[in-house]
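Problem: given the chain below (182 residues), write out its structure.
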Amino acid sequence: MQAYPSFTPTPGGMPPEVSNWFNTVDRDRDGKINADELKSVLVNAQGKHFSDACCRLMVNMFDADLNGTINESEFGQLYIYINQWLSVFRTYDRNQSGHIDEQELSQALQQMGFRFTPDFVKYLITRADVEKKNNIDVDQFMVLCVQLQRFTESFRQRDVEGKGEIQIGFEEFLRVALEVSL
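Solution.
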């Protein structure tokens, strides 16, 4: 049987600092946070704001009522999720550069249960690395991992026999790609 990695955030109690962070991020004080508000406070190790794509992805993941914003409870779940990813990123950013290179990404993905060839890991870096530095920042890492997670879950649902292979038609393929895309 084919084993698939899964790294769903674990539920837990809300950290006490969540309300303070929520109020800081909610600039217009409407009780909701959109992707632009989130982007204004998320900064990577190089002092650059997280990408629009990453912030949209994170808001959409936790936006239970699909209104394009997250409330304080949803933000609390996002806060825990972001911190889990930061922890994973820091674990594999061994030289503390704020970037993960090909070798570090390969190790991180292996730890998550993925068994990709070196050529495919290089391809992933190339796709995620918008600045063409042969490494990825934390937000690029998060987007990449979330996309891999979504594709894996979608694949798993269709691989009912656990063989590690599926057969789908063109429209179903497009449906999967669109569901997983940002």
